[in-house]
Each structure stands twice: as C-alpha cells, then as structure tokens.
Write a structure and sequence with these properties.
The protein is 57% helix and 16% strand. By secondary structure, it is an alpha/beta fold. Pfam families: RVT_3 (PF13456).
Length: 298
C-alpha cells in the first residue's frame, strides 16, 4: 500500500518533538481544575440580574401585597390605642384648663367691677345704682377677658419642710412642699402639696423645689404676671440675682436656681419679694398643709 507524503511528514514531525514533562503536565491540570472550581463558585451574571429585578419589584410592591406579621399588627394596634388615649387625655386637660381660665377671668372681672362700685359716691349710687351693670360673657369680648388676666399680678406662696422621723429602728428624712397661688388681694386660686422623694435633701433645696412647682403651676394656668414670696433672705438674693451660690456643695442649689431663672423668662413679669407680717395667714396655711402631709407619712 503506498504511503502518502503527508503521513511521512507528520511522522517525522512527531519524532522531532520532545516527550512532555509529566510534572509540568500535572501542574497545568491542577491550575485548570482550580479555574473551573472558581468559575462554578462565582454567581452567574444572568442570575444576579434576575435577583436584582426581584428585589426591586418587591420594594416597589404595595404594602398590602407583602406578607403581614402578627407581631407587627399587634404593635401597631397598641400604638394606635396609646395615641388615642393620649389625645383623649390632652383634650380633657385642655377643656379643664379652659374652664379654669374662664372662672379666673370671671372672678377678676367681678372683683374689678366691685371695686369700681365701691368708689361710686353714695349720692350718685342712690340715683343711678340700678343702672350699673357690666355683664360677663356675651357682653364681654375675649380680648378684654384676656387683657384682664394679663394685667392682674398674682402671688405665688411656697414653702418646703424637711425633718427627720424615727420609723422603727431607723431614722428617715421626710420632705414635703406646699404651694398656694392667689390674686393680688390674696384670694386663693389654686393650691397643691406633695411629698418629695430624694436621698439628699437640704432645707434650701426643698424650698427651691417648692418654688419651681409653684411657677410651673402658675405657667400652666397661663398667668402672665406673678410675684413669689421668699421668707429666706439668702434665697431672695439668689432669685433676684444679687448673689450666687458657690462651692461644690452648692452645685445642686445652683442647678435649681438656674431652673428658677429659666422659669422666670416664661412670664411677662416675675420677681421675688420678701415675706412680711401681712402675709402671715397664707404662710401659716402652708405650714399646716405641710404638717398634715407629714402626719400622713408622705
């Protein structure tokens, strides 16, 4: 059988090529297997695109199409109920505040009208007394009622009490505060008293706590002009800015005084005044209220 020239050439070329190194061939095979394993571990670009489209579609879907968790629904229901309760309490508080302010404006209106009547001469009163009238409500504008409470100067009386009581085998420090808010003629408008709970309580600190409570109460009544009683000359100097508490031991007093100064800025007019004998009655009333709280063990 004749041999072709092409077969002869291929045979000669195969004889001329050297035999491959077995070690080098194994290394090439190892690298090839690693590349194949790495390629299998990497995500397919098409699969990545599909996942991205699914995430975007889920994010753009309406909330009703998403699965609802029972815990989330319960938490939302509790939050709604809490909001409704807070709104109801706020509306009730605002209604009570409006009623209190209306009663206060009515009282100021009546007192001022009574003072004007007292200044009318007797002869003029006999002749025209039946025609003197100033109705409150429909005959009074809201601006005049607001002006009445803005021009009236109210008084804030406050007192703090600290004492050590023997309870069983231990000594306990008991503190309480009392506050009374009156008009310019010392007619009582509001009063409150409550105990204080603190590990370290000094007489001055309790006094300032009582004043803070009184100023907050006056501000909640929407009073614009207030004066507050001080029976301690040192505290009077603190509140009027004539002196400042100093030292590390007075840090708490300084903090409380700063609160008082900040509260004073919420009023159109607010200043301290020293106690005198004309205010003895209200002072004794506060003392009696504090001792009553103390007797209850508060």
């Amino acid at each position: 059988m004749p041999v072709l020239r092409s077969q002869v050439r291929r045979g000669r070329a195969a004889k001329q090529q050297p035999n491959p190194d077995p070690i080098e061939g194994e290394a090439i095979a190892t690298r090839t297997r690693r590349r194949l394993a790495t390629a299998k571990q990497q995500p397919n670009p098409i699969e990545i695109a599909r996942r991205t489209r699914r995430r975007r579609a889920a994010a753009a879907a309406p909330k009703r199409d998403r699965p609802i968790n029972g815990n989330i629904v319960q938490a939302d229901t509790t939050e709604i109920e809490r909001y409704e309760q807070e709104r109801s309490d706020r509306e009730l508080s605002q209604a009570e505040m409006r009623k209190t302010m209306d009663d206060l404006n009515r009282r100021i209106h009546d007192q001022r009208f009574a003072l004007e009547i007292l200044q009318v001469p007797e002869k003029q009163w006999r002749a025209y007394g039946d025609h003197y009238q100033r109705p409150y409500g429909e005959g009074s504008t809201s601006s005049s009622a607001a002006a009445a409470i803005e021009t009236e100067t109210f008084r804030v009386y406050f007192k703090g009490l600290v004492s050590e009581e023997r309870i069983r085998d231990s000594t306990v420090t008991v503190a309480a505060i009392g506050v009374a808010i009156c008009d310019s003629r010392d007619n009582l408008i509001s009063e409150l008293g409550k105990p204080l709970k603190s590990k370290e309580m000094s007489r001055e600190a309790v006094e300032i706590e009582a004043l803070i409570e009184g100023l907050n109460a006056a501000h909640s009544l929407n009073l614009k002009r207030v004066e507050f009683l001080c029976d301690d000359p040192t505290l009077y100097q603190y509140f009027s800015g004539e002196a400042r508490p100093g030292g590390l031991r007075e840090f708490k007093i300084t903090t409380l005084c700063i609160q008082v100064l900040l509260l004073k800025t919420k009023f159109m007019y607010c200043r301290p005044f020293l106690w005198h004998k004309m205010m003895l009655g209200m002072y004794l009333n506060l003392q009696g209220m504090l001792y009553f709280l103390k007797s209850l063990g508060l």
